[in-house]
Amino acid sequence: MNAHALAKSYGQAHDAMRSIDGLQPAEALDELLNYLEARSGANLSDSSSVGFEETVERIWQVGQQQDGRLQLSLQATAAVHRALETVDFDSLTADVRATAFREFLSPEVRKGLGIFLTPDAVAQMVVRILGPGTGDTLLDPACGSGTFLLHATQDLVGSECGGPSLRGVDKSGRMVSIARLNLGIGEDSGFASAVQDSLSEAFDANLLQADSVKFIATNPPFGVEIDPQASWLSKYRVVQTLRATRSIPSEVLFLELGLRLLKPGGTMAIVLPRSVLTNRALAEARSMLGTLGYVYAAVDLPTETFASTGTMTRTCVLFVRRYASNDEPASLVRVRYCRVENVGFDMTGRHRAGSQLEVIPDRLQNAACDGAGDGLCVQLRAIPGEETLSLLHGLILESDHSALLGADSVPLEDLCELIASGTTPARSKYVESPGLFILKVGNLTGQGVSWLPRDRNFCTASKTPRLAHRGDILMTAAAHAAKYIAKKVDIVSDIPPEVGGRATWVAEAILLRPRADLISPFQLLAFLRLLSTQEAIRNMATGQTAHLRAGDLATLPVPTSVLSGSLDSLALVLEQETRLAEQVNRIGLKEVTLIAELDAPAT
Q: Is residue 372 part of a domain?
């Protein structure tokens, strides 16, 4: 039986349960999984001799004794079995079972049921880089539907000797059942599973024994905050470093858990929000984790990778190895790093040609062999293993600066009097005109500042407001996705009297005040408008969404060629553009003033 035919049979069984027992979609899915578990335990080897009704009765009775307990009526159980009676699940490959399940439950239905799957291409890349072989143990402590484990059976088992021993744990019984459906329910499937919370429950002696696992591949839930008062947290050393009264990000706990479960020399691949590398509040936690293991490779993923799950979080895959000896923490390591721009689909999930994920495993290996890299994958500067997690973000920025802008440069902070984020007023501080004009992201156009008043463009001034000056440059610095960082960069050429002649700026923007004796405002604007410069700036963004820190922007190298006039022709064009923007502003403000006068009641 092929995957399409199996998916059709699942659909028939699902429809029958909903029709006969009146189940909701989620309930029907759970009962389908319960039926399959019961069928596996019913020993149907003699079903051809006992008849259909007796077989159904046997499955139903076994289902009543399960942990999940089959809730179907006997009539609905019979309808489900009729739809799936001829399917020999033992003869189906894991690929057929998994493909059929994905076809049976469309992406929209999966999302509605809270089933979020790691994209196949990402899982395949991760497993190929890890390279578990026959006899190795591969564990996923937050296995979901078992995507990583499934790809270990598809991609690496090719020998007659079989593949790795697969272990999966998840606190959702539904997800573990789906994993068992994908990987095989029988004892000879090579897959052992457990329903439990890997973080808080006691270790399962067979699945989660410390120091027992050679490989871990996992994509733990993002954004789950753990109450710091939970008693079981005391076993995590990372919690002690946080000294937290604030909640603890679960992904940090998964990092420590994985490193503790690995054998010495064992390897973990873990998908994490990039904020784990950049959040200053986690600095001590990163240092502590560096005493347990080191990062040997990292792959940055674009925001569309997990868009289907409803998140625009920037993510990365860290490949971390537990130390095999006491002297390894001080040994020098050159982390292999890749930044992926194309994962084979766009933000809507539609196919996009030219996926880079397929070549990443080989490119990472080549980067290790030749010591350099090919542009897609590079080796970062050598540092002690214990510092790889703490310094990884800085090493990536250092590599970006060198690759994109060259070595003959000066830091941006040397060319500016001021580089600073603004302050967004409280809602109660906004007023109607007159007031202090506050430049918002919406006032930036990428073709000149728009001074036409918008909603909440005026606020009450603080005692000593920080004011924008003529010749200052503003850029977008916070957004829901990194692609919008530095997308709009404008110069403050004039602050019209119609808006009060004074202006400040919001926290979502960064203001730069060039040193006129070193660089003209339009030279700097020309440099900041370059696509290569904007890409370098976007790569500095931190946070769960995207936020550019003024301190990080200050480190941006500016090629000395810019100072000697390499962009003067572009600077001249931008100066002309700015003058046009000034004229548009004057016309628009005059129009607003005239309309207000005409609308004013007669006295």
A: no
